[in-house]
Every structure is written in C-alpha cells, then in structure tokens.
Amino acid sequence: MSKFKHRTIPEVFLGLGFNEIYDVWSFGCLLSELYTGQLLFFGDERTNSEESQLDVMQTVLRRSIPYYMYERAFDSE
After folding, report:
1. In terms of pLDDT, which residue wins out, 49 or 71?
2. What are the residue boundaries of the Protein kinase domain, all occurrences included (predicted)?
3. S-S: 7 plus which of 2, 16, 29, 55, CB 3.0-4.6 Å?
4. Chain-centre distance of CA 62, in angstroms?
5. pLDDT tens digits, residue range 31-54?
6. Which whole-number Å values give the CA distances from 10 to 3, 30, 35, 37, in the listed order?
7. Cα R_g (the chain), whole angstroms
8. How far is 11 from 4, CA to CA, in rounded Å?
C-alpha cells in the first residue's frame, strides 16, 4: 500500500476499512494526476506517515476530515 499512499482514502488511514468508494477516490486521484502531470496528494518523503498524508489531504482539499470519521476511528479501538 505504501507505493500508492498518495491515492489512499482517509478511511484507511483512520482504520475504518474500505469499499467501492476506495476505487472511486483512487480513480479521481489518477484522473487529476493524468490531467495535471502532478500527484494530487504528495507529501514529504521524510514525513511519509499516515498523519502527514491526512494533513496533505486536508490542505489540498481545503477541508477538514469530518469529525464523525474521527469519532468512528477512535470508537472502534
């Protein structure tokens, strides 16, 4: 998975699993990359952690990860 971390849905980073939404998310990222020639969510190689990847996603999308996702992630622990 680390090879394609820049196309991974936030749910996977939060431990919420994945379904067909993963395919749609990945396809959207791929289309953006083909159109622009650049990775959509590209983090720093030195800080290539799941937390830093979530930060990059929030910065690019200009939105925070929904609170209910954090609640579900921490409730399942």
Report:
1. 71
2. 1-77
3. 29
4. 13
5. 999 999 988 887 666 656 778 888
6. 16, 16, 22, 23
7. 13
8. 15
Question: What integer pLDDT is reported at residue 2 of this predicted model?
Answer: 45
The pLDDT score that the predictor gives to residue 40 is 83
The tally of domains found in the chain comes to 1
Task: Output the 3-class SS for the chain.
Answer: CHHHHHHCCHHHHCCCCCCHHHHHHHHHHHHHHHHHCCCCCCCCHHHCCHHHHHHHHHHHHCCCCCHHHHHHHHHCC
Find out whether 6 and 53 touch, Cβ atoms under 8 Å. Answer: yes
Place of tokens 């910065």: 59
| Contacts of residue 61, Cβ cutoff 8 Å, sequence gap at least 6 | none
Q: Residue 7 in contact with residue 39, Cβ under 8 Å? A: no
